[in-house]
């Protein structure tokens, strides 16, 4: 309901501004075209974040460079995940109330201020997801090998 989304946005008003991409970035290591399905508090697949436009589902173009991940969303707010803010990536099946087939979502975990965030993406070519998980794992050497998987059920899914 719209009122619940507005209330949630008010509660998340302390979320810092989203980082802007650097003026100049290195060559693209990976690109992905698909859909952005939303962001949640890390490890809590139904705790949707709506502040700063992160709750708006949209088409997406992701680009990985040595500086980080550029998230370009036509019709929605773009954002950038600096390499130093990346905390890991995994394949999963649900985020923010959206449930797909097992491994159907690329979940990128990153730090924004004092909050860890999971952002969910689905490539138009799902076979690309594994390359992203591998590449992002290489940029986050301190990330645990046993990345937390979230238990999903259909309740709350749309």
Automatic annotation (TrEMBL):
A Pfam family = bPH_11
Region Disordered, annotated ranges? 139-158
| Domain PH stretches | 15-136
Task: Point to the regions of Basic and acidic residues compositional bias.
Answer: 146-158
InterPro entries named in the record: PH_bac (IPR057446)
Q: Determine the domain of life of the protein's source.
A: Bacteria
The entry's protein name is: Putative integral membrane protein
Supply the source organism for this entry. Answer: Streptomyces himastatinicus ATCC 53653
């Amino acid at each position: 309901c719209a009122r619940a989304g507005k209330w949630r946005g008010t509660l998340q008003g302390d979320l810092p501004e989203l980082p802007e991409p650097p003026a100049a970035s290195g060559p693209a290591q990976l690109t992905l075209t698909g859909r952005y399905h939303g962001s949640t508090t890390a490890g809590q697949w139904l705790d949707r974040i709506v502040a700063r436009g992160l709750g708006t589902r949209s088409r997406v173009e992701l680009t990985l460079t040595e500086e980080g991940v550029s998230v370009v969303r036509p019709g929605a707010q773009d954002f950038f995940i600096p390499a130093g803010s990346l905390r890991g990536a995994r394949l999963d099946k649900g985020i923010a109330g959206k449930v797909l087939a097992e491994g159907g979502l690329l979940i990128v975990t990153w730090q924004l201020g004092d909050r860890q965030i999971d952002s969910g993406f689905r490539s138009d070519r799902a076979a690309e997801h594994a390359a992203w998980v591998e590449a992002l794992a290489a940029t986050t050497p301190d990330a645990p090998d046993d990345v937390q998987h979230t238990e999903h059920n259909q309740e709350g899914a749309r």
